[in-house]
Amino acid sequence: MIRFVWVLAAALPLVVRPVAAQSADVVYVNARVWTGDSAAPAAEALAVRDGRLMAVGTDAAARALIGASTRVIDLGGRRVVPGFIDAHWHLPTESRADLVDAGSVQEIVKRLRQWAAKLPKGTWVVGRGWTPTDFPQNAAHKRYLDAAFPNRPVLISDRDGHQALANSVALRLAKVSATTKDPAQGVIERGAGGDPTGLLKESARGLVSRLVPPPTRADIARRIHEETQAAASFGITMVQEASRRAPSGAVFDALADAARADTMRLRWYVSVPFNPGATRAELARYVQLKAQYPGPWLRYGIAKGMLDGTVDAQTAAMLEPYANTDATGLPFWSGPVLNKGVARYDSAGLQVELHAIGDKAVRMALDAYALAQKKNGRRDSRHRVEHIEVPHPSDLPRFKQLGVIASTQAIFATPDVTTLTNYAPLLGAKRSALANNFRQFDDAGARQAFGSDYPVFPMDVIRGMYTAVTRMTPEGTPRGGWYPAGRITLEAALRHYTRDAAYAGFMENDAGMLRAGMLADFVVLSEDLFSVPPAELLRVKVLRTVVGGRDSYVSGTN
Fold first, then answer.
1. Closest of 445, 418, 522, 468 to residue 101, by C-alpha
2. What is the set of domains in the chain, with CATH numbers?
3. pLDDT tens-place string over residues 49-76
């Protein structure tokens, strides 16, 4: 017969549940725990067995579960919070020159030359991370790459991954010329006489990128190791991977192998492609994957679709034209096609997440979800809109009404030079005031989940929270914040990175809070987030990341 004991809290609230009278694998004592659980918000200690929390409460209650083989870790009064969940993250599989924060064409060329020097002669030179403001008059052009690489193909993607700049060699190899027609859902920027400038937007990027040799299986395995190691160092215990890869190939195999071998460093919720014209066989395969990988380390069941582009590329679909232009962006599907596709995925029991940045695209996504509910009946679908950078105010209440997740990226509100001199001017003052305004979603009662969109922006969660509560750059500019009415509280930001992100991924019964019976996923911080002034949050560091009771990161040892 199994005996049960009641773990009781003497001074602090404790989630009271019957647990088997067994000792803990690990006990963490002398902590200041923010549980994220409104019924028991604070605790002193955690006890872990078999990857789950046995007890969350007082030191005394946790110590009562110490056995002969139990490890006891004194956290020295450190702040402990639930593991961070990145609700929108991408796995980079290619090695490329890092062009983030280059700031000028000269710096871009310098970095590309340094990168190219390490490669065999004649191979492609690729990079990622430039922004329009790196170029004179915010206009990227092939002539800057041609001067530095007259005989070697070069292709560099912008920070958002929606524009690419190719040099003349690359265009020639791809047979892109003045007579080449724009592909569906893409734009070839042209100069005098229709000659391509080298700037390729949205699907037009594929005209050249298809020629770049793909990474090897060894490359992918290495990148998975490196990227998940980095994620753990930021306190991330789960990623909701939004790359919409087909469920086959090296990445799929590597994740499946790691799940079987129980060697994962963090938890994965991986998207499959959303395609309105998906066949019945494809939908059946996605449903089968959902059943085959139910977690807790690897899960499927969400489908990612792209509905528009970005503001910086002027391809985000807007209800009104961009400032000083007649352009309104580039919706990738018509309303009827999108609506039919969403209804099909919803009927199959698959969660849908749609990239929608402009207010027109956001409205199209919400309309599609509303029609799916009308056709299939309301269910716990938790469909999502990703990014939602410039929503129309009248659409905000619809998130709560429809039960749609607002999947936003806190760090997008960084008022860097690109935001201030390209992004905001394209939107105009009225729309800029509402752009990446996270408070408006909270005020509307929406369930808001935070992510990073890594590698578009850093996956540093502390930096994301800093941005959400200050709306300043890491250097503290502008003083008082960029459109400060959009700021939110630290506790709200922390909740969006934990409990709300878990809910967005159907994991709220297992993750996002620290409660007895839930997964032992948590983070130990160098300082108390709640005691540090908002402007100084960036000094807080992750000391330890625990996933399923296992250390995935310990400062000074990784």
1. 418
2. 1-83+512-558 (2.30.40.10), 97-209 (3.10.310.70), 217-511 (3.20.20.140)
3. 999 999 999 999 999 999 999 999 999 9
